[in-house]
Amino acid sequence: MAKRLTMMLLRNILIVPYLFIQLMWYAKTTKVSEEKKYSLIRKIGYHGCKSGNVGVHGYGLEHLPSESGYIMYPNHQGLFDVLGLVYLDPDPFGVVIKKEAYNVFALRQLIQTLGGLFMDRNDVKQGLQVINDVAKQVKEGRNFLIFPEGTRSKNGNRLGEFKNGSFKAATKAKCPIVPIAIIDCYLPFDTNSIRKVDVQLHILPPIPYEEYQGMKTSEIASMVKARIEKCIAENEHNFEN
Fold first, then answer.
1. For position 1, what pLDDT does the model report?
2. Rounded to whole angstroms, how far apart are CA atoms 203 and 84?
3. H or E element: which one contains 116?
4. How remote is the C-alpha of 157 from its chain's centroid?
5. What is the rounded CA–CA span in Å between residue 209 and residue 163?
6. How many beta carbons lie within 10 A of that of residue 192, not counting itself?
7. Average of per-residue pLDDT across 11-38
8. pTM beyond cutoff 0.85
């Protein structure tokens, strides 16, 4: 991670201070619109990808619902996942992320600027409050991203267990579920190299509430995981990194 991150910073040395100051301010203020904040995060993502020798290949953008108020559920491979999605998705979205990320400088400000929420996986009451907050905001027309594995997989493109509780926000909001298959997003920061890498993000057809209405969250989790696994199996060899 250190080599690629250092390269990103050095190649953007003239604009890093400006972007950093903006990020610090946007993370705290309520006087800036969500669209303007998201534009800043997209700018950071764009410069990071280009200067970091990361080719981001997005597929299925046409599957994103035309109306806001949905939740995206991708597999989780590392720190690059959110930047990759921001790089591709023109519409603002919030993120639910584990509370440990709050202590990571700059990452905390990035999530706050996105209007994200930090979840304590060891506090059931706090976790339920986060789920309720997400459902409320989604009903009001915001989009959210939740990693159903809860933490990043450390097995490359192999998925970890999908947590049933992560889908409670969708059932409460009665919103479309958008599965996303992330491939090779662990490479940019989990390999100590600055060589060119290619990552893939496949946005799969949304699952409308009517399709999963009445299903148990465990059944929803299995369905979403199966669709993501199928997409990864079909596409993980598209680029030989």
1. 63
2. 12
3. none
4. 16
5. 19
6. 9
7. 94
8. yes
